[in-house]
Amino acid sequence: MSESPIYQSKFTVYVVLCWILAAFGGLMFGYDIGISGGVTAMDDFLIEFFPKVHERKMHAKEDNYCKYDDQFLQLFTSSLYLAALVSSFAASKICSKFGRKRTILAASVAFLLGAALSSGAVNIGMLIFGRVFLGVGVGFGNEAVPLFLSEIAPVQYRGAVNILFQLFVTIGIFIANLVNYATLKMHPYGWRVSLGLAGVPAIILFIGSLIITETPASLVERGQNERGHRTLRKIRGVEDVEAEFQQIVIASEVAQGVKHPFKELMKRSSRPPLIIAVSLQVFQQFTGINAIMFYAPVLFQTMGFKNDASLLSSVITGLVNVFSTLVSVFSVDKFGRRILLLQACVQMLISQTAIGVILYLHLHATDSLTKSQAIIVVALVCLYVMAFAWSWGPLGWLIPSETFPLETRTAGFAFAVSSNMLCTFIIAQAFLSMLCGMHAGIFFFFAAWILVMGVFVLFLLPETKNVPIDAMVETVWKKHPVWKKFM
C-alpha cells in the first residue's frame, strides 16, 4: 500500500498542551471504570444501598461465584453506559454543529453534575441518576476527544497522539484503584469520597476546554476557512500548511454535499469504515477487559482475597495497564496497527485460557485458591491486561477516529462510541450473573471471542499507519482486497 505525503510540522508547547488537556476526557472515563468496582466491593456502600448483597457476601458457605450476583448492583455500574450510548448520538450532532471544543466542555459539565449527585446520594434513585449524568459526560467526551486528537495531530504522530486518550483512561483506572485502596477504611463515607473525587478530572477538563483550540477540520466544516487556516499554522508550528489545508477544504466541500450523514453511512461505500468501527468496539469489550477492570476487586475476592488484598491486586493491574499503554504510544506509528492487535490476541488468548483452567481445577463453590495459585492468577491477569493495553484498548478508539471521511466522521464515530457503550453496558450488567452461572467457563467464553478477533484482523482490517485521514478512501479502502468491492 502506498503512503501519502507527510506534511510539514513541528512540536509546539501549545499543541502539546492541547493534547494533554483534551486527554483528560479519557481520565474521566478511566476513573469511573476503576472506581465503580472498588465501591461495589465496599461493605459501607453495600450496607447503605444493597443490604441483601452484603448479607450474602458475609455468608461463609455462599457460592464464591454468586455472592455479588444482583441486578441492581450491576445496574449501578451499567446505567452509566446506557446513558452514554444514547447521549453519543446527541454528541455527534453537537460535535458537527458546534465543534469538538464545545462538546468537550459539555462533557465536563455533565460529569461534574454526575460526580456531585452520586457522591451525595441518599437513596438508590439519586445514585443511579448521578450515574446517568456521568454517562452523558462519558458519551460526549468519548465522542469528541478521540476525534479532536486525531484531527489536531500531525499524520506521522497521529497514532501516538490519539493513544493519549487511552493512556489517560488507564491512568484514571490506576488513580481510582489507589483512591479505593485509601478510602476502604474511611468508615462509613469512604465510598462517597471515591465517587466525589470524579469531579477533579472533570474540573481540569472544564478549564482545559476553555484553553484548547478548535480543530481546523471542524472550523472549515462550519465555514470558518480563514480561522481554520490560522489554527492549522498555529498547531503545526510552520507557515507552509497550504497542501494540508487544501486537502481539508476538499474534504469539507465533499462533506457539505452530504445533508444527512447518518443516511450516508447506510450507503454501500460507507460500509467498510462503519463495519470496522463497530466491530472493533464489540471486540474491544468482548475481550473481557471491562469485566476485569469494573469488577477486579470483586473478582479477586471471589478467588479468596480479602478486601484490602483484592484492592491492592487491582492497583497492581492498574499500574501494569498504564505502563503497557505507553508501549503503544511509542510503537503504533512505527510498527503499525495490525501487528499490535495480532500479537495481543495471541497473548490474551493464552492468558484467558490459563486463568480459566486454574479456576476450573482449583476454585470451587466454597473454597479459595492457595496463595501460590492466587499469585499465578494475578500474574496472568497482568499479562492479559498488558496485551490489551498496548493493542485493543487504544487502537479500538484510534482506528475508528481516523478511518471515516469528513462527511460521515462524527456520525460514524457516534456509531462506534454507542456500540462500545452498548457492549460495555451488556458486560457490566451481565458479568456478575455470568460469573455465577458459568463459573470458570466465563474465561473460556472470552477466550473464544479473542480467537474470532484475531481472524477478523488478519483478513479484514487494513493498515492505516501514516495515511492522512482525508486520504483514507483512495489510499486504504479502494486498495483493500475485500473492501475495494464496496467502493
TrEMBL record:
Keywords associated with the record: Membrane, Sugar transport, Symport, Transmembrane, Transmembrane helix, Transport
Positions of transmembrane segments: 12-31, 72-91, 103-122, 128-149, 161-183, 189-212, 274-298, 310-332, 339-363, 375-399, 411-432, 438-461
Keyword GTP-binding: no
Family matches, as InterPro entries: MFS_dom, MFS_STP/MST-like_plant, MFS_sugar_transport-like, MFS_trans_sf, STP/PLT_plant, Sugar/inositol_transpt, Sugar_transporter_CS
Transmembrane helix keyword on record: yes
Main location: membrane
Location of the Major facilitator superfamily (MFS) profile domain: 18-465
CDD domains cross-referenced by the UniProt entry: MFS_STP
Subcellular compartments: Membrane
Tree of life domain: Eukaryota
Protein's membrane topology: Multi-pass membrane protein
PROSITE patterns assigned to the protein according to its UniProt record, in alphabetical order: MFS, SUGAR_TRANSPORT_1, SUGAR_TRANSPORT_2
PANTHER family found in the cross-reference section: OS07G0206600 PROTEIN (PTHR23500:SF371), SOLUTE CARRIER FAMILY 2, FACILITATED GLUCOSE TRANSPORTER (PTHR23500)
Family (UniProt): Belongs to the major facilitator superfamily. Sugar transporter (TC 2.A.1.1) family.
NCBIfam families found in the cross-reference section: SP
The name this protein goes by in its record: Major facilitator superfamily (MFS) profile domain-containing protein
Lineage: Eukaryota, Viridiplantae, Streptophyta, Embryophyta, Tracheophyta
